[in-house]
Amino acid sequence: MDATAGAGPRLRARRRRYGEDVVKGVLAVCALISVATTVGIVIALFVPAYEFFQDISIVDFLTGTDWSPLFEPAHFGVLQLVAGTLLVTAVAALVALPLGLGSAIFLSEYASDRVRGFLKPALEILAGIPTIVFGYFALTFVTPLLRDIGIQVDIFNTLSAGLVMGVYLIPTVASLSEDAMGAVPRDLRDGAYALGSTKVQVATRIVVPAAVSGIVASFVLGISRAIGETMIVLIAMGQQPNLTVDPREAAEAMTAFIAATGAGDVPTGSLEYKTIFAVGATLFLMTFVMNIVAIRLVRKYREVYE
Amino acid sequence: MSRSLKGGLFRLALLFSLGVGFLMLGTLLVDVFKDGLPYLDKTLLTNPPSVDPEIAGARPAIIATLYLGGLLLLFTVPIGVFTAIYLEEYADKTRWYNRLLEINIQNLAAVPSIVYGILGLAFLVRGLGLGRVLLAGAMILTLLVLPTVIIASREALRAVPDSIRQGAYALGATQWQVVSRQVLPAAIPGIATGSILSLSRAIGETAPLIMIGAVTYIAFDPTILGPFTALPIQIYQYVRLPQDEFKLLAAACIILLLGILLTLNAFAIWIRNRYRRTW
Amino acid sequence: MVTMADQQVTTIEPMSLADIAQEHSDEAYKNREAVFEVKDLAVDYSGATAIREVSLDVYKNSVTAFIGPSGCGKSTFIRCFNRMNDLVPGAHVHGDVLYHGKDLYGDDVDPVEVRRRIGMVFQKPNPFPKSIYDNIAFGPRVLGLKGSLDERVERALRQSALWDEVNTRLKESALGLSGGQQQRLCIARCLAVEPDVILMDEPASALDPISTTRIEDLMHDLKREYTIVIVTHNMQQAARVADMTAFFSVDVAPDGNKRTGILVEYDRTSKIFTTPADKRTEDYVTGRFG
Question: Which of B99, B108, B111 to probe by mutation at the A interface, max A CB count within 10 Å?
Answer without folding.
Answer: B111
